[in-house]
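ok trying this again, last paste got cut off
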Amino acid sequence: MTIPVTWNPLTDWRPVHIAWVKVTISPEDLRRFTQRSNVKGLCQSLGFLLLLAATGSLAYYAFDHGRWVLLLFALYCHGTFYSRFGDALHELSHNTVFKSGFLNVGMTALFGWLFWPWNPHLYRLSHQGYHHRYTLHQGSDGEDVPNYVHLNARLIRDLFLRVIQFRELAINLARLFTLRPTSKGWRGRGFELDTWEQFVLKSASEKVRRQVYRFGLYCLIGHILFVGLCISLGLWLLPVLVTLAPFYGAGFLAFVAGVHQHTACEPNCPDYRVSCGDAILDPFSSFLYWHMEFHIEHHMFAAIPCYNLKAFSRFVADQLPPKEYAIPRLLRLNRGCAEKYGCWQNWRDHFGLYKGF
């Protein structure tokens, strides 16, 4: 039995010039959609924080009054929604949420501390420097590939019932305490940095590398002080609602919203309408997902704030593929992956190796 080889960007990465194909839009119209708004950014950001404050308050009320079933329900919802901090940090990494640079930087620091397993500066290096520049081009985009999905009873069960992530907690705590950059949710497959993480750090300037490591130190000190203060005040549940919250909750929302981004798409294609995918979400899921279901549009013009993507999509709808609701599209992708790749191993041998699998 041969052991499949994984692509190593440290030795095999190569740049490629891509003449990207986008929709036709006038510079004047594009400027309308790229306008950033502090008010809209605050509505999105504070609305998200208020939702988490509500689920956290419900959990604290249940804990304080011995309502254990209600506590479990509240923690389930809190952890499920809390995991969407990753989507928030994705959008903040593009510096498009606010017109004010101060608000962009400040909210990134706050959200990054609250969701400490996701170092936003390491993520920005990979996401903007490579994924957007070389989307799904093999040998250049080490962050993502044409992904594979296979729906089965075990996966569906896990999406709803696998709610405590002990391994991820141990890995990220070990990284945090040894000042290694954390990357839960988009990398973070082990204690040691994988080759892609090593590559993007090695390729970055010394100034940016220091920023990545300083942020990890800021999170470590901040959470030690926070947990210590909570314990000294007898507020035992607060660390569970903040510091440990990234490691519990269900994954079905993230799966249904995010699986459409690049699953079964074409690699090495200069047209974002082929290398990316969209889906129609309900308003609540769209809000939690920071409107990234408009993923084709986001890749075409990453400077468009998330809250303007829907209007932009309607404006150029005649130049985009028809959209499907998330669940029917997910079922179609499930069938499409089986037809296109045959099985997971065949997908892994041709595409998964570029993702570190």
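PB: full thing came through this time. The mean pLDDT is 96.
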